[in-house]
Amino acid sequence: MQIIRVRLVKRNKGCESAPIEILNELKKLKSKENGELIYFDKLNLEEIHVDLRDLKEADWLIEKNAKEIFYKHDKAIFVGGDRSLSYPVLKSFIEVEKNPLLIVFDAHSGFDEERDEGWLRKICENDFCNVILISSRNLNENEIKFIYEKKIVWIKMDILREDIQGVCDIVMERARESSGFYVSVDIDCVDPGFAPGTSDVEVGGLTSGDLIYFIKRLKLLNNFRGGDIVEINPEKDINKMTVKLGARILGEMI
Questions:
Q1: What is the CATH number of the domain that holds 110?
Q2: What is the CA radius of gyration of the chain?
Q3: Who contacts 184 (Cβ-Cβ below 8 Å, separation ≥6)?
Q4: Which of these, 8, 18, 87, 181, could form a disulfide with 119 (CB 3.0-4.6 Å)?
Q5: What are phi and psi of 190, to 5 degrees?
Q6: Residue 33 belongs to what domain range?
């Protein structure tokens, strides 16, 4: 298991300090929810150093390094930074993996070109569309049209509230069909009552317990290849609630 810290920020200032803050909180976690001990000193930590004055080069550098990491390691977790981290990392993942699946937790779809540069749209505009989108709840007409055209699985909040265990069962079955899957977590998938430290607040999301439940179950599958945690903004946090949630998610992923 490789943990990679990346301070890339293009849009949401304040998120660049999140990787350090999350890892500092991870040091304080003694165990996972099931009682399995966390040995921070034994974790394989790495940092991709990028020059924020040249964002095009930063994207290229992250993509290049991520591809090497996916070739060398069975699992890799990337800690950002804002959502701009996800595009170069996931672009590398779908190039390396034979039959990849992306499971994306996000209040927003990633298909709006005016938001986050439509990072997920750029990935899905070609032939790849093996994506499960969870908790997205503020989409415009063009985003919804793109989802249906590409036959992307969009699991809406009303369905999640009815039967989160059943939904998780379905997601896991889909994940098992892939050669490897990647879990991308934008912290705004969680309701701001549980995770206030983010730049794009959207009410009505998952509880922190819901997200941890998903992560714990998905992590059990042998073809879990890794994930990312992005959009935590410590400058907007309250009592480190969001940073601590990021550390807990990371702790359950490893």
A1: 3.40.800.10
A2: 17
A3: 86, 90, 102, 103, 104, 105, 106, 227, 228, 230
A4: 87
A5: -90, 140
A6: 2-253
Tokens of 114: 């005016």
Q: What is the pLDDT along the chain (254 residues), one digit of tens a residue?
A: 899 999 878 777 889 999 999 999 999 999 999 999 999 999 999 999 887 778 788 899 999 999 999 999 999 999 998 998 999 999 999 999 999 999 999 999 999 988 777 899 999 987 889 999 999 999 999 999 999 999 999 999 999 999 999 999 999 999 999 999 999 999 999 999 999 999 989 999 999 999 999 999 999 999 999 999 999 999 999 999 999 999 999 999 99
Q: For residues 180 and 217, is the Cβ–Cβ distance under 8 A?
A: no
Exposed e or buried b for every residue in 167-205, given b needs 16+ CB within 10 A? Answer: bbeebbeebeebebbbbbbbbbbbbbebbbbbbbebeeb
What are the helix and strand counts (H, E) for the chain? Answer: 9, 8
CB 137 within 8 A of CB 157: yes
| Integer angstrom CA distances of residue 123 from 110, 119, 168, 214 | 10, 7, 24, 24
How many structural domains does the chain have?
1
What DSSP designation does 220 have? T
Helices (H), the chain: 18-28, 55-72, 86-96, 119-124, 141-150, 157-162, 164-176, 208-219, 241-253
Residue 57: phi and psi, rounded to 5, are -65, -35
| DSSP β-bridge partners for residue 190 | 206
CA distance 200 to 98: 34
